[in-house]
Amino acid sequence: MTTRKKPEPDGLIGMFGHTFEDGEIQYQFQVVRRSEDVYICQLFSWIDGDPTDCITISRSRLLDLVLYQTAEDMNRAFEKRRPRHG
Predict the structure, then answer these.
(1) How far apart are CA 26 and CA 20, in angstroms?
(2) Average of per-residue pLDDT across 18-47
(3) In a domain, 5, yes or no
(4) Strands across the sheet containing 16-21
(5) Do 12 and 29 contact (CB within 8 A), yes or no?
(6) Which residues pair with 41 in a beta bridge?
(7) Would you call 62 exposed, middle or buried from its count of C-beta atoms within 10 A (0-12, 13-18, 19+)?
(8) How many domains does the chain divide into?
(9) Which residues touch 74 (CB under 8 Å, ≥6 apart)?
(10) Is 72 within a domain?
(11) Confidence class of residue 9 from pLDDT cuts 50, 70 and 90?
(12) What pLDDT was estimated at residue 11?
């Protein structure tokens, strides 16, 4: 009988975050799964917040991004960065 090793918990799974390009927020995402040293992240629409595509991000890159505990924290951070008109 073989015993399967129980996967170790990963504190990054479930966290939310933003990626940046040229100093601007590019994607908003939630970390949903890990496979070795790569994380699968669910992207969210800028229009309505609905889930869209999934992307993979390496652990080293993920640790360099801005991460949040909750979607509300992520949304607040976005609102602070968004330019005000009028």
Answers:
(1) 5
(2) 94
(3) no
(4) 51-58, 38-44, 24-35, 16-21, 66-68
(5) no
(6) 31, 55
(7) buried
(8) 1
(9) 16, 17, 18, 28, 68
(10) no
(11) low
(12) 87
In terms of residue numbers, what domain contains 33?
Answer: 16-66
Sequence letter at residue 40 = I
Q: Which of 55, 7, 10, 8 is nearest to 28 (CA)?
A: 55
Whether residue 7 is contained in a domain is answered as no
Q: What is the pLDDT of residues 63-85, one digit of tens each?
A: 999 999 999 999 999 888 876 65
Cα separations (Å) of 79 from 25, 63, 70, 83? 11, 22, 15, 8
Q: How confident is the model at residue 7, as a pLDDT?
A: 52
Q: How far is CA 42 from CA 48, 49, 52, 83, in A?
A: 14, 11, 7, 25
One-letter amino acid identity for 20?
F
